[in-house]
Amino acid sequence: MKLKEQVLLILMSSKGEYVSGEDISKQLYVSRNAIWKAINTLRADGFIIDAVQNKGYLLSGGETDDFTRYGTLRIRQLLKKSAADADITIKDTVTSTNTLLRSSAENGAPDKTVLIANEQTEGRGRHGKSFYSPADSGIYMSILLRPDFKADKAFFITAGAAVSVVRAIKKVCGIDAGIKWVNDIMLDGKKICGILTEAVTDFESGSLQYAVMGLGINISRPKGGFPSEISDIASSLYSDEVAGNELKCSLSAEILNNFFDIYSHTSIEKLIDEYKRYSVVLGKRIKVISSNEEYYATAIDIDANARLIVRDSAGNIHTLSSAEVSVREGQGL
């Protein structure tokens, strides 16, 4: 991180209080003259910074309320080694982070390109469904990957993202969430996060040209609540707390740290074991909705390819690669 960015982050974190040049120089182990030059560079970039003798510097203009400016710096500061080289962009409003990142991928954007938005106007879920993505209440993030594995291992990306989100929510918020196969994060029986992975495959080699993993987390209840069509199934991490920038930054950074650590260092076997520990469907009576049938079953296992194994009421075993499932009341059949 450049010196001017480090100075800006300190000013943004000062909560409206003046910070002396001496204090900043001590924190960053540089001279006061270097701080003065950084301040002038930031002013040239358009930041409004007041200076008062014997008090120091104060960032004006509500910059800490600007997620696109504050968030980029703060998230970078919180990234660990596995995620430190991620190329992060934050935008206020986009159509869809997945759509935009797929376009970037086609134009040659590199591995570990990350796009985060405060709002999506055309957010997308599985099977062409829309994903409600209002401003100031959640995190909408997509990650571009150029993996070196075959397309039949693409499930690793979605499973890794799900585990990353559950871990991050626990660490940052102290909340225990769970995973509903295959890509929903649940809290108290309702969905708080959805994950969508889209990939382009090289037909001849069977390898992935690229994959875009997108996720949306409901941190707080939207103003006016959720739309009536999803109010019975959607929820948020908090009912009253506002999704402030510091919380969004901490959660985003922790997700990225977990995801890239899993992506780079975790075996499929270890990932699936952890994924199963967070499952909210294993051992439960569920309703399975596939393309051509609906039936009740018991979820009995998740295999090494993240497929759900179920036993129907007649005792038949089904191995599901894709389907919609919902948890029914009671354990087993």
Order of helices and strands: HHHEEHEHEEHEEEEHHEEEEE
Quickly count the helices: 8
Strand percentage lies at 25-35%
CATH class of the largest domain: Alpha Beta
Please give the largest β-sheet: 7 strands, mixed
Overall shape? elongated
CATH topology of the largest domain: BirA Bifunctional Protein, domain 2
How would you describe this protein?
The chain has helices spanning 3-12, 21-28, 32-44, 67-78, 97-106, 155-173, 245-265, 268-277, and strands at residues 49-52, 56-59, 87-94, 113-120, 138-145, 178-180, 184-187, 190-201, 208-218, 284-289, 294-302, 308-312, 317-320, 324-331. The protein has 333 residues and is α+β, with helices and mostly antiparallel strands. The chain folds into three domains: 3-61, Winged helix-like DNA-binding domain superfamily/Winged helix DNA-binding domain (Arc Repressor Mutant, subunit A, Orthogonal Bundle); 66-277, 2-Layer Sandwich (BirA Bifunctional Protein, domain 2), CATH 3.30.930; 284-331, SH3 type barrels, CATH 2.30.30. A hairpin with a 6-residue loop joins strand 8 and strand 9 (208-218). Helix 2 (21-28) packs across helix 3 (32-44).
Considering the chains and any ligands shown, give keywords for the structure:
333 residues; alpha+beta; Arc Repressor Mutant, subunit A; BirA Bifunctional Protein, domain 2; SH3 type barrels; five-stranded antiparallel β-sheet; 8 helices; 28% strand
